[in-house]
Amino acid sequence: MRTTELAIIGGGPAGLSAAISAASLGTKVTLINRDDDLGGQLIKQTHMFFGSQKQYASIRGIDIAGILIKELEKYQDNIEIMNDATVISMYEDGVFSVVQNEKYIKIKPQSTIIATGASEKFLTFPNNDLPGIYGAGAVQTLMNVHGVAPGKSVVMIGAGNIGLIVSYQLMQAGIQVKAIVDASPKIGGYLVHASKIRRMGIPIYTSHSIKYAHGTDHLEKVTLSRLDEKWQQIPGSEFDIETDVLCISVGLSPLTELLWQQGCEMRFVPELGGHVPVRNENLETSIKGVYVAGDVAGVEEASSAMVEGRLAGLNAAEALGHTSRDLEDKRKDCVEQLNSLRSGHVGEKILSGLSKVTV
Amino acid sequence: MRIEEHPILSFDKGRKVNFIFDGKAYEGYEGEPIAAALHAAGILVLGHSHNKQRPRGFYCAIGNCSSCLMVVNGQPNVRVCTEKLQEGMVVETQVGKGDLR
User: Fold this and answer.
1) Average pLDDT over chain A, rounded to whole?
2) Is A142 in contact with B36 (CB distance < 8 Å)?
3) Can you tell me the distance from the alpha carbon of B53 to that of A134, in angstroms, rounded to the nearest whole number?
4) Do the bridges between strand A79-82 and strand A29-32 make them parallel or antiparallel, or are there none, so unpaired?
5) For A39, A184, A340, B93, which has the most beta carbons within 10 A of its beta carbon?
6) pLDDT tens digits, residue range A8-29?
7) Minimal CA separation from A169 to chain B, in Å
8) Binning pLDDT at 50, 70 and 90, where does residue B98 land?
9) What is the distance between the alpha carbons of residues A23 and A46, in angstroms, rounded to a whole number?
């Protein structure tokens, strides 16, 4: 059985940031990443980030991944990276098992940071399993990472930031976006993204939803309908749009399987995307030495995931006996950055969610 | 359908490789996910549901949803959205839950 001081599960923005901050204090880190490449979902994000300079504002997600990986390399003596490695179980005694290259490996770390991210939510409607109906993030991966178009035209369900950004990126790739549809009466994403979309002439149907998908072997047409103020479909308001791709962008849910397996105390918090772990200010869960960072702790933006990662890395390192002269300043800086990212209208929802799980 | 022109991205493709899907020869790029190569070739149906045999395609692209399980080089239940394409691979539509040969 292998041992390590700190295991970090997940090589996305939160996990990478946690590895950097923990290793910078001298912690021996094992970073376990399911993908072949580090960066998580940053590697498909061609848009520039918001926030402040510290969260890499105005830099494209794909380039932020490169910046983090470079920073990680500075501490390579302290970091062992396991790519293409999936953690498949975690036990109460702190042992967990990893599958890599078809080998079963057991690891016992002194502490763990779980940064497994989130997965896309789905929507219920007749024929929702037809090929041609994809998660919006999946389409982003297919076109931006692999250079393959999902189809000829797209109807997007969801006018949150992912729905708006992916629609824009589809147009950039030369794919027609026929409509963006959202059940809510208001556009959920940032107005700057929505204006860009409107300028391109793409209609955004608020208070609308999908009623039916048509096709035999793959999607051919969708039926949309208007919703009343109680979010119920209005009979007679239906209309059809011919399309071979439907993207679903209705939010994310935290990938919390490993937290459940270990027995962390969980709570259902809709504002954070579903079941999330109870944690203290140090991002430590109800199990001592098990920390969380990023979307697994509550669905937010990659910017806050990076800051949470830094914070969890510092706290885990300190609890393991590592320190530095500027540790307290660094920690304060993270907390201030998170407060600033969570100010404003979207932040209110996040803060209300966090108040239900922070003890 | 491959995206040939893009205002921001350039795609570093591996070398061209040949593979077999359900007995027919196809081309793709080495190292890309098998599902990307199939999609580029216009193949959208990757499997079928167990009970009603409804067609299933690509959904999550990151190995989470199990919508794209296929038989690759004789091994069933391979997630082709993350499995990398290699020269000479034999990809088959999986029937049922798959048997280890």
Assistant:
1) 94
2) yes
3) 19
4) parallel
5) A39
6) 999 999 999 999 999 999 999 9
7) 10
8) confident
9) 29
Nearest to B1 among A41, A135, A149 (CB): A149
Task: Give the largest Cα separation in chain B, rounded.
Answer: 47
> Does residue B46 belong to the interface with chain A, where contact is any CB pair within 8 Å?
yes
Q: How far apart are CA A241 and CA A345, in angstroms?
A: 33
Indicate the DSSP class of residue B30. T
Please state the domain count of chain B: 1
Question: What are the residue boundaries of the structural domains of chain A, listed by start?
Answer: 2-119+252-355, 122-248
Residue with tokens 């798959």: B98
ipTM above 0.90 for this complex: yes
CATH number for A122-248: choose from 3.40.50.150, 3.50.50.60, 3.40.30.10, 3.40.47.10: 3.50.50.60
Q: Three-state DSSP class for A129?
A: coil
Predicted confidence at residue A50, as pLDDT, reads 76
Distance CA A215, CA A130 (A): 7
Q: What is the pTM assigned to this prediction? A: 0.92
Report the gap between the CA of B92 and the closest CA in chain A (Å).
Answer: 17
> Which residues in A lie closer than 8 A to residue B81 (C-beta atoms)?
138
Average pLDDT over residues A337-344: 92
* Token digits of residue A238: 């239906």
DSSP category for residue B85 = P
Residue from the list B8, B82, B84 with its beta carbon closest to the beta carbon of A46: B8
**A147/B6 touch (CB, cutoff 8 Å), yes or no:** yes
- Cα–Cα distance measured from residue A179 to residue A202, given in angstroms and rounded to the nearest whole number: 6
What is the rounded distance in angstroms from the CA atom of residue A316 to the CA atom of residue A54? Answer: 21
CA angle (A3, A86, B56) in 5-degree steps: 170
The amino acid at residue A220 is: E
Q: Which residues of chain B lie closer than 8 angstroms to A144, CB-CB?
A: 9
Of B2, B39, B54, which is closest to A129 when you measure between CB atoms?
Answer: B54
Residue pLDDT, tens place only, B73-96: 999 999 999 999 999 999 999 998
